[in-house]
Structure to design on (126 residues):
């Protein structure tokens, strides 16, 4: 069996690194309330960066398939950002989405408050 320069554990790590970067950028963008096209653009840029890095630095084409998939995914993300810029959602939809997020935040904070209150009540009965 031929060896392509990297082991399976290294290949798994090469797949995990872009995944971590992708989700971390998405989380940071949501926390900073960045617009969707910017979020998609940053995620696409990270995927393209990893793809170029893998093509250049991994010997004997060991991660060429992974780099190709990352390049295609980056292209899809750039197309999504472009589509979002060209056809933005209506302001009414944006306001509804913001209201839903705000209500979810309220219910989550109320649930955490009620859980801590009920726990303290239950312990006082013991």
């Amino acid at each position: 069996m031929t060896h392509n320069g990297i082991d399976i554990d290294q290949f798994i790590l090469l797949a995990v690194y872009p995944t971590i970067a992708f989700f971390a950028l998405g989380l940071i963008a949501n926390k900073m309330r960045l617009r969707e096209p910017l979020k998609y653009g940053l995620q696409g840029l990270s995927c393209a960066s990893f793809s170029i890095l893998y093509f250049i630095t991994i010997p004997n084409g060991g991660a060429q398939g992974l780099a190709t998939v990352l390049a295609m995914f980056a292209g899809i993300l750039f197309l999504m950002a472009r589509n979002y810029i060209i056809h933005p959602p209506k302001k009414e939809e944006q306001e509804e989405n913001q209201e839903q997020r705000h209500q979810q935040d309220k219910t989550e904070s109320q649930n955490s408050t009620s859980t801590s209150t009920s726990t303290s009540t239950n312990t006082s009965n013991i």
Notes: Residues 8-90 form one domain. Helices lie at 8-31, 36-57, 64-86, 91-125.
